[in-house]
Amino acid sequence: MSATLTVHRGSSNSWLLTWRNQATQAATDLTNYTVDVYDAAATIAPYLAHAIADAVNGQTTLTLTWHEKLSERRSYPFRLRIQPGAGGAQTTEEILLEVK
Q: Which of 25, 32, 42, 95 is packed most tightly, with the most Cβ within 10 A?
C-alpha cells in the first residue's frame, strides 16, 4: 500500500483501509492483531491514530485529529503497521500526509 493522503488546513479526517494478502488479494483477517502508526514524523505522530474497524474483513481506520502545529503546504511521512500476536509485523510503504 502506498499513497498520498490530502487534508485541508483545519480539517480532521478518517480513512478506511483494507489490508490484503499480497499473493491472493484476499482481505487479511486481523483477529488478534495489533495496529499502530509507525515511523511517523514527530510533528504528526501525536495527531494520528490507527485502529481495527472490522477485523474479519481486514479493515482498519486511520484518523487525523487536526492541530495548528500542522503546516500548510507541507507533507508528513509515516507508515502503518499490523502485527499478529505471534510476531511477524507488516508495514506499509511510506505514506505522505499532505496539508493544503
A: 95
